[in-house]
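Researcher: I'd like a structural prediction for the single chain below. Treat it as a standalone chain; there are no partners to consider.
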Amino acid sequence: MSTRLDKRFAKLKSESRSAFVTFITACDPDFDASYEILKGLPAAGADVIELGMPFTDPMADGPAIQASSQRALKSGATLRKTLDLVRRFRTDDAETPIVLMGYYNPIYHMGVDKFLVAAKDAGVDGLIVVDLPPEEDDELCEPAMKAGLNFIRLATPTTDDRRLPAVLANTSGFVYYVSINGITGSASPETRDVAAAVARIKRHTDLPVAVGFGIRTAEQAAAIAAAADGAVVGSAIVSAIASQIDEHNKLKSGGAAHVLALVSDLARGVHGARATAAE
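Model: Treating it as a single chain, here is the predicted structure.
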């Protein structure tokens, strides 16, 4: 069965352009402010939305995303509220794919079966769970696939050709290539290295490859998008949200517009990348 992710990447491929994948943390700084930003992302140019599940100990994430989780949790964020955010988004947008990204602990505590039913009902399309390796696919990956959700796996610069088949075995939707070693937002990727890595991954799979970690400007996004099927931006957007939060942990007036203006600028870089490369 073709999913929203499959349809979106197929459409973008037919248009000869890369996907712009945006990340924000659910309920950062609170539910209503987060929804205001979330609902504006597609019009600002987001093709796929990754929505972070707030967690107390997001060890793979850098300071910006860690802080966003803390802000969200301070405002009362839960996994159920994250799903409520998706459900509310779906009342006006039935097409933009939403992928939940985060850690297994909150899902485990809700219960895998209960979570999958609730996620599917809310309108979630896929999952990225960074602390579940392929060796534990029976824990969540396989049940998620049976429930009709894409399970997106991460590949890194240290994922060699011997490891890739295991990483790709149950991956669907797209492959998320982490372009640098380390935590999110810690460095910027080298385009030449990214292009070589994407080509290597594509020798093992027909899935689209989206590249993330360290992309902060429209120029960087364009360079990555020219070499991959998608560019993922998270820390830069989350940092923009942080810059618009007042001393009461509330989004300032005009804060959402400020964040979405950055998203639009990044989107122009991504969507113009293939055209520029062809000139």
